[in-house]
Structure formats: structure tokens, C-alpha cells
Amino acid sequence: MTKSDDKMPSIVPAPGDIHPLRRFTDARVALGRAGTSLPTRAHLDFLHDHARARDAVWAAPDLEGLRRRLEAVGMPVVRLRSAAPDRATYLRRPDLGRRLDNKDAARLRRLVVPDSVDRERPRVGIVVADGLSAMAIDVNAAPVVIGLEQALRDQRLELAPVALVEQGRVAVGDAVGEALGLALVIVLIGERPGLSAADSLGCYVTWAPRPGTPDSARSCISNIRLGGLVPEQAVACIADLARDIWRTRVSGIALAAAIGQRLE
């Protein structure tokens, strides 16, 4: 073998036996190599996706447009803010995003109506919070909320007005649940964007939501988006989860234990 034959090629394509599998995932696998770096196309794709992720975190979702869309199909909606006064503070102070603004919390308590005559119909609340991806809310929230509203009514569950919370974290659903006296709260929130998905919506379902509820008491369904769990399938999964939680009166790891015991 000559010295020239021993040189590595400057451009190394993706391995042939792995390349066909890339159509099944958005993950960065089998990208190939150009010298000591990525091929130009892979590098530009990385920069593009990184910019989309940053935009998803800093952008504001169109909550007013979401409100109009939900009200157009007959769903009552209430707009709220967390205790975080702006986006920069929200990103630095996660604790403020877990609490409602004091004025909004008081306004929400005034919406409480007398208990239903039918004690077997618990009050359930749907909360939409921007979280860390405005894109996830703008793309996925409306079809999930509209489909979920019908699925929950099919279970004869009494629904509170949909709460749209600006600058909200997952635990802001606990504050909403306490103010409205909810038995169950379903929080739909923009998930932290990655470099392969900036529009992923997460769902957290909590039984007996109250401030201070640990994350271990929440049941989660994630990656709700067209490239993951599509909204129609997500609605069915969330509705089934809500049914199990209502039957067992627990959520999170306690729900997993209760279902496990039932299957034994």
C-alpha cells in the first residue's frame, strides 16, 4: 500500500447500512463527514434548527387567536397571566411561572359556580400554557383542546372554562385547579425545544391539583406534534388517561402502581 493509498477521503458519506433508517427519525444520525467537520448541508440544517429552537423559546404564542378559535366552537375561555412579568424574568425565575398573578387568581375564584347536582360529575379543567415553545401552542393546541373537550364530555365530565396562561409553567395548573376547585387538571404546555423538534406539545394530568403538588404526582404524555404523537391520537391517549385517573383517584407514580395492582 502506498502512502497516498493510506489517506482518509476528505468526504465520508453516511454508512450505507444506516442511511435508509434516517427516514424513520428526525435525530441527527449518519450525517457523514467532510474533513474534520460536518458536511455543509448538515451544518446549515443544524444552524437552522438551532435558530428555530431559540425563536420557539422567546416568541409569544398567539393566545388571542387561540381564544377566538375556541370560542367560535362554543368553548368558554379565560385569559390569565402567571406571576412572571415578562419573558426574560420568566426564563430566569421558573418559580414565578408556577404561580398566577394575584389579580388573575382573584378573578378566577370569582368564576367558581355552585357544585353540580350530580356529584359523580367532577369538574375538570384544561389549562394551556406557553411554556418553552410558542410554536407548539400555535400549531398543536387548538386541535388538541377542541378534540379533548368532546372526548371528556363523552365521559360525562363537567368542564371548567379553558384557562390560557401567559408565561406559565406546568405547576400553574395547580393554582388554577385550587382557584376553581377542580378534581382534575389537564395542562397542555410547550415543551423545551430540541434541535429536531421545536413544536412539541406536552400534556400533564394531575388529580386533586393544589400548589405544592410534586411532579411525581403528575401523569405525562409528551411529543404531541405532527412528527410525533399526532393531535388526534394524543386526544385519545389523554382521554383514556383522564378516565383511569378518575377511576383510581390518583395520578403520577401512584397511578402506575394502582394500574399494576389491578392487572395482577
Automatic annotation (TrEMBL):
Instruction: Note the InterPro entries from the entry.
Output: EutC, EutC_C, EutC_N
Pathway involvement?
Amine and polyamine degradation; ethanolamine degradation
User: Which branch of life, at top level?
Assistant: Bacteria
Gene3D superfamilies from the UniProt entry: Ethanolamine ammonia-lyase light chain (EutC), Ethanolamine ammonia-lyase light chain (EutC), N-terminal domain
Q: Which reaction does it catalyse?
A: ethanolamine = acetaldehyde + NH4(+)
**Quick one: which residues bind adenosylcob(III)alamin?**
V170, E191, C220
Q: What is its EC number?
A: 4.3.1.7
User: What role does this protein play?
Assistant: Catalyzes the deamination of various vicinal amino-alcohols to oxo compounds. Allows this organism to utilize ethanolamine as the sole source of nitrogen and carbon in the presence of external vitamin B12.
The name this protein carries in UniProt is Ethanolamine ammonia-lyase small subunit
What is the protein's species of origin? Azospirillum himalayense
